[in-house]
Amino acid sequence: MAPAPRSALCSANFNQDFSCIAIGTRTGYAIVQCEPFTRVFAQADAPTAQVEMLFSTSLVTVVPLPDAPTHTSSAQRLQVINTKRQSTICELSFPTPVLQVHMNRRRLVVVLHGALFVYDISNMKLLHTVETAPNATGLCALSPNSEQCYMAYAGPLAGTTDGAARANTGSGTGTGTGTVILYDLLTLSVAGVVAAHHSPVACLAFNASGTLLATASEKGTVVRVFSVPDGAPLYQFRRGSYAAHISSITFNAASTLLCVTSDTGTVHLFQLTPTPTHDTDASTSTVQPSPRRGASLRNVWRRPSALVGSVGGYLPPSLAGMWEPARDFAHIKLPNPGVRAIAAVSKYVVSLTHSLPAQVMVLTMDGHFYVYALDLERGGECVLTKRTPLSHSHTEYSLLDGITA
């Protein structure tokens, strides 16, 4: 997440199972356990633009903060650090600034403006470089699951002839602004293309098992969920009627809830029921095709180049008309609309039938950690139960006062 104005916070993200958060500031970085909310590691005197951690291990990646806006060379470096030993495992340099870093237990992916660098995390050997369309926001998602080891990134823009289209799909022509490339990081090959939206894709997220992919476009009114790796559309949710910038999408551990944050200041929670409900008109053949139609789609899916070349014919007349989008099951009204936030359901809640209230954790870029109670039976507006400031001021973060092992 980008920093909020006048804040020392440069980045903040949950780890893969939402048990910890990694915080980067102008003075250093910290690892904080969510329950109980406790700092477990901090490094001062290390200005940090980005920091990510691998589950709850001691492995973290750090992108240093440039000492001046014109000095971007430090942003082109990635440090892989063992926090337990307080040692640097390796340091990598890239031709352009590092925009995002994603990890699971087998792969590390570094996102640049026009390329994705794929590493074997066990030895940090470079396995492959994937050219992409211009990617100023660093849009990319990586499955947390090491067996369902996929990454997703935006397809080439309409009318372009970039390297990604040629190298990855065998086609030199862009196929639309709302496509998503699904890439197998074990075989290092394209698994398929998802025709997700009509407008450019703005947010992507996998569930914990790597079997579901959620997408949102720049318009931000609808969130869709597709199965992985076949790319079949499963769910469609209505965030709102007016456009909004989607800040984050997260699944809970059991893939029964979907959290969506946006710049409207509302966190939406949607239910992923075992059997998606939708209208029964002819357009639902996109969701549950006849055997003949299904076979055709499966054949196209196995040939990404064919799908890329003919995706216009694959899309229904209106993606929004596939079935009626479901509204949110529950929601949260954040106190400061416009501040970027990321939300996640506590990993300790594994089922919608759980008798205790679920906890929704929200981390905001103005430096606050909120916990809300979610009624899993009734839904509705969640109740604030805890609010923890990350600092005592807007300039110095108490979590970075000293170092703890």
From TrEMBL:
Residues in the signal sequence: none
GO cellular component, one term: cytoplasm
Gene name, Swiss-Prot/TrEMBL: ATG18
Protein name stated in the entry: Autophagy protein
InterPro entries assigned: PROPPIN, WD40/YVTN_repeat-like_dom_sf, WD40_repeat_dom_sf, WD40_rpt
SMART domains: WD40
Keywords, in A-Z order: Repeat, WD repeat
Organism from which the protein derives: Malassezia brasiliensis
UniProt family annotation: Belongs to the WD repeat PROPPIN family.
